[in-house]
Structures are given as C-alpha cells and as structure tokens.
Design goal:
The protein is mainly alpha-helical. It has one domain (25-133). Helices cover 47% and strands 0% of the residues. It has 7 helices and no strands. Helix 2 packs antiparallel against helix 6. The chain is globular.
Length: 137
C-alpha cells in the first residue's frame, strides 16, 4: 500500500461534541467506584489548603487519565474533550490536577501508598472486581 502524494497536508480533526475517545473508561470507573477508590483517597489523603479539596475526586480523575493513556499533566485534558463531559462528571482541569500533585510532600505520597494498599477494598470485604464481573454468587 502506498500513501497518495497528491495532498500537501493531511489532518484529522475530532471535534464532534458527542465524540467520546475513551469509552472504555466507563467500566474502569464503575469498578473504581464499586471498590471505593474515591472514599479511600478522601479518608487517607490529607493535602492541605484548597489544593487538597476533593482529593478523592482528583485521585479518581488522575487514575482515569492514566488509564486513558495520559502521561503528563497536559494530557489530562482528554478527560474534558468532546463528549466526555456527558459521560463523566467532575473532571478537573489539568492545571488543577497539576496544582494538586505539586502540593504533595513525601508524607502525602505515603498516604497515597496507603490508599493503593487498601484498594480494591478493606480486608474482609467482598471482592468488588469479582462481584462486578460476576465471579461471586
């Protein structure tokens, strides 16, 4: 196969307001909600000032962005692009997420590690991933 060389410039624009580039996030965030990610982050993460407000939602936004392929703060904008606002609520601006992360100290990283160690749920609770996927009766 050979590319047609008649066009000097080629571009693709995905600007439809109904377009959702990462529809696969729906089951992932459903699982995260079922497992209590937001509540865990809210309980165990204490970032001071207004930067730490709604820590659970900000952590969930960061996880969603990373799952969707974001590898920088600027890439987190994909959570607010196109029709994503119709599928997900409370998606933070990349600058807000960056300010949140920049306010972290080593202690906050340890707190976030405590969240990760308790995910997908507290010890003794039913496995939310298995429940969501139908592995439990």
């Amino acid at each position: 196969m050979q590319l047609c060389h008649t066009s000097a410039a080629t571009s693709a624009v995905f600007d439809d307001p109904n377009l959702v580039s990462s529809a696969g996030l729906v089951p992932v965030l459903t699982l995260a909600r079922s497992a209590g990610l937001r509540e865990l982050a809210h309980t165990h993460l204490s970032v001071p000032t207004d930067k730490g407000a709604n820590a659970g939602l900000k952590v969930t936004s960061l996880v969603a962005g990373m799952v969707a392929g974001a590898d920088s703060i600027d890439d987190m904008a994909l959570l607010r692009h196109g029709g994503m606002g119709r599928v997900f609520t409370n998606a933070y601006a990349p600058s807000t997420l960056g300010s949140f992360l920049r306010s972290f100290t080593f202690g906050h990283v340890r707190q976030l590690d405590a969240v990760a160690s308790r995910f997908p749920g507290p010890a003794g609770s039913p496995d939310p991933a298995g429940r969501l996927l139908g592995w439990h009766r």
